[in-house]
Amino acid sequence: MSGKLYPLHTEGPDLIFGFSTIYFGLLAIASVLVFLVYKRRGTLPKIGEPYYEIFVLALGLWWLGGLLIDAFAHISGVVDDTFFTPWHAIWYAGATAYGAYMFYAIFPEEGLWGLVRNPLKTLRDISPEHRPGVYGILLFGLSGFGDMIWHETLGVETSVDILLSPAHIGLFIGLMMAVTAPMWSAWANKESGRDGLKSQILIVFGLGAAWVGTVLITIYANIWFDPLQTFCYDGGGMYCLNDTYDVALSQGMRALLVQAFVSSVVVLLFIRRWMPARGSLFILFIFPAIGMWVYSEFNNALLFMCIAWAMVVELSLPILQRGWKRLFVPLVTTSQVSVVMISWWWRSEEWASSMYWIEGTNLHMLPFGWTIHATFGALVMCAFIGWIMSVVAFPPTIPSIDDE
Description:
This protein is mostly helical and 404 residues long.
């Protein structure tokens, strides 16, 4: 696994012309394709109409692909000290195309003009299930404009600062609200997601795309990306970076608990409303797998670990189908830690001469060199995070006065 994270930016040429060419060129190609569909069908599909899912999925994948390309450019250092990069052009072109189509699909015929004439009233009149998507698109647009001003006046961020820039946080939140728009629309439809994988594909896409963004903004608290040296302990040897055991343990546990929380939220949003069809969970977990693969600069070992986790979760679907929702989520969070530990176990022999050793009164063991208490306690803590989140999502029924 690579411990490399967001190196310094490199100097480059003036890319304003390149940005404009790519941005408007991609939008022009998309416009021609949309016009051909419009000419053939006489209209473009709106929510619930045939081919709507294809349009949303294609444009959403373009937007998500732009995010991955831009993120990889930052991670690998192929960036410039300006907002107007080719990677931004691809990302923002996808966002523009997706946003324009979602506005068309959601608003009534006079809605766009109403948004221009009386924006506040028009936004208030939007149905609750459509508000996250519309508000997310607007937030992304405003944050993108703010990001341009931020870059051109205050410079380009480096290292973890990239994830904490106010404009970037606005972009991430806007993106996650917008890509989950089909999910929130389906939430209000009592018939949604009941006809197998095909009926859940947009729900899975929305959650998965939001998860890809979440992985990126929490990359500094993700043990999947940290090199083993940063959180292992070898009793003062030459391999692990931390001479103090508590520092090594704290580094690893913080990362494990944050990701246990994130995965719990994603899974609970899904199963709180729908029963996953066969294959839905596997596809959902492939989204963060692809994200981690790109963010790690195409580390195949990390990709295989993520795919293994996706397979474990998919094979655990019968537990959920039996109605054991409060057991299923802890299983998801625990299996994530288990996959990490098993994967590191085979490589830990590179720095450890034995599977365990005693230091004082404590028994330390592979793969991290943590004590036996912490090694198994990490599994229990992540399971506890999943369980407490599932209790919040599925609380006991509140008795009503009528029942009494």
